[in-house]
Amino acid sequence: MTNQLTLTWTEAGVRQTQTIQNGQPSKNSGTVRLGRDRAKCDLVLSHQSVSGLHVEIFFNQELQEYAVRNLRPSNPPLVDGKILASGEAILRSDSRIHLGQVQIDVVSAPAVQVAAPQTVLLEPGVASSSPPTGPSKYGLQCPNCSRISPYAQLNAGCPWCGTSLAAAASVVLSP
Question: Alpha-carbon Rg of the chain, whole angstroms?
């Protein structure tokens, strides 16, 4: 199955749409780069507030989600209203990316299916349901926005709302 991400934006008064597919040919294998420089970017935006090489979008195999990575610390993008000074941010179907003065809307993104949290035996005598069988991947459910983050985010906090994940519920992700 090919995962797709569809973006829309307005360029010189004309509405543009671009669909990105996981594994599509690009100038930097595994990513789609956005910016003004035609030699380095797969999706070229002409507005002067956009950097030559601004961001790259890629499919995170572990999370089965698309993410955006900042490539220009001196001109960071806004992702869902937050400055992405470094690192990356997960893209959802309602995400907004601002590269300079250009607003890019994510109108379609793959949906991640998350299994219901599994209760495990924590103390002797405490009732619980059976733990999952076979290998499982776990995530942290943010106590504020309920989105699921990988365990690697534990010390960094929720990438969407910034809430500490120290008190987050552990959930089993669907294989």
Answer: 19
* Tens-place pLDDT, residues 68-81: 999 988 999 999 99
User: Are 80 and 44 contacting, i.e. CB atoms less than 8 angstroms apart?
Assistant: no
CB 32 within 8 A of CB 45: no
Residue in 71, 72, 63, 27 with CA at minimum distance from that of residue 160? 63
Q: Beta partners for 149? A: 140
DSSP annotation of 49: T
- Alpha helix ranges (H) inside 9-76: none
Predicted confidence (pLDDT) per residue in 82-127, tens digit: 999 988 999 999 999 999 999 999 988 765 444 444 444 344 444 4
Cα-flanking dihedrals φ and ψ of residue 21, to 5°? -120, 140
Closest CA to 28 of 41, 45, 43, 44: 41
Q: Which residues contact 140 (CB under 8 A, 6 or more apart)?
A: 148, 149, 150, 151, 153, 154, 165, 168, 169, 170, 171
**Distance (Å, whole) CA 16 – CA 158:** 31
Q: pLDDT tens, 19-44?
A: 988 888 888 888 999 999 999 999 99
User: Quick count: other Cβ atoms within 10 Å of Cβ 39?
Assistant: 8
Greater model confidence, 164 or 36: 36
